[in-house]
Amino acid sequence: MKQLLLCPLFVLLVSGCGKTDRSALDCAAASDAIKLEYATDPANARKVDYTIRYTGDVAITSVTFDYGDGKAESLAVLTGTHTYAQPGSYTVKATLTLQNSSGEICAITPAKRITIY
């Protein structure tokens, strides 16, 4: 009789462990949910509006834009606007820090190469 009671208890513990493993932060999957987009202002070709599209379900705790010209800023929103002083090609990066409910942290940095005329 004791053997029959232990078997269901063992199955319950194994299935409980499986749930914990699935809640781990998957940085690769999170990076697939992030897109960095931009649009040039029609009235000022050196002014660029950046937008981060995020379709994931993990909380974003910080966003830092590096505009590629030596200027950077940390924002609490998923949009940034920057006016470039000189024409040229720049690599723009947006570093997003994600944190799940377990406290695991992941930093993802999508980048775009743009040309300012």
Protein model, in words:
Strands 3, 4, 6, 7 and 8 form a five-stranded antiparallel beta sheet that branches. This protein has two helices and eight strands; from the N terminus they run ααββββββββ. A hairpin with a 5-residue loop joins strand 6 (88-99) and strand 7 (105-108). With 117 residues, the protein is an alpha+beta fold. It has a single domain, classed as Immunoglobulins (Immunoglobulin-like), CATH 2.60.40.
Instruction: Say which CATH homologous superfamily is assigned.
Output: Immunoglobulins
- Strand tally is 8
- The coarse overall form would be elongated
* Rounded mean pLDDT score: 84
Name of the CATH architecture: Sandwich
Q: What's the number of helices?
A: 2
The unreliable regions are: 1-22
The ordered H/E elements are HHEEEEEEEE
Please give the oligomerization state of what you see: single chain
Helix content: 10-25%
| Beta-strand proportion | over 45%
Distance between the termini: 81 Å
What fold name stands as the CATH topology? Immunoglobulin-like
Q: Give the CATH class.
A: Mainly Beta
Whole-number count of domains: 1
Task: Describe the SSE topology.
Blueprint: H1 2-22, H2 27-32, E1 34-41, E2 44-54, E3 59-66, E4 72-75, E5 79-83, E6 88-99, E7 105-108, E8 111-116
Antiparallel strand pairs: 1-2, 2-5, 3-4, 3-6, 6-7, 6-8
Q: Brief overview, please?
A:
The protein has 2 helices and 8 strands. It has 117 residues and is of the alpha+beta class. The termini are far apart.
